[in-house]
Amino acid sequence: MSSVQNPPPSYAEYSNYSNQPPQTVPIQQQFPQPLPPQPVPQITVISQQPTSVTVRTIPILGPIPISITCSQCYAFVTTITNHEISARTHCCALALCLTGLWCFAPLPYICGGCCKKTVHRCPNCNAFIGTY
Ligand SMILES: [Zn+2]
């Protein structure tokens, strides 16, 4: 009878060995928990950016000179406009070529108007105000 009870202590040693590896696994599962709180402070940083952007007012510009207050010299002026070649000019010339009117393709580069972008500048300090 007593010889039969000797084998169970050796099985208990096996159960102690098998219990130790599962104890290390729950410790590794605790590492991902500190990571999720980090993205939460980044969202609050984004909300601070629009407050600095709204300080500057963007004037509504058109193809003709307009009267505005210059953002550089703070004088109330009527803008000087210049027509410059832009991507819109190239698109107009390309459209003329594709429709068979290739002989009129140089017209967007020669003439001003709607095919070129209008650059507004301050006549007082020559500061760049915007484009249309
Ligand atoms: Zn100015």
TrEMBL record:
Entry keyword Metal-binding: yes
Location of region: Disordered: 1-33
GO function term, MF aspect, one: zinc ion binding
Topology of the protein relative to the lipid bilayer: Peripheral membrane protein
Domain of life: Eukaryota
The entry's keywords: Membrane, Metal-binding, Zinc
Main location: membrane
Polar residues bias spans: 13-22
PROSITE patterns attached to this UniProt entry: LITAF
One Pfam short name: zf-LITAF-like
Domain LITAF: 50-132
Family the UniProt entry places it in: Belongs to the CDIP1/LITAF family.
Protein name as catalogued: LITAF domain-containing protein
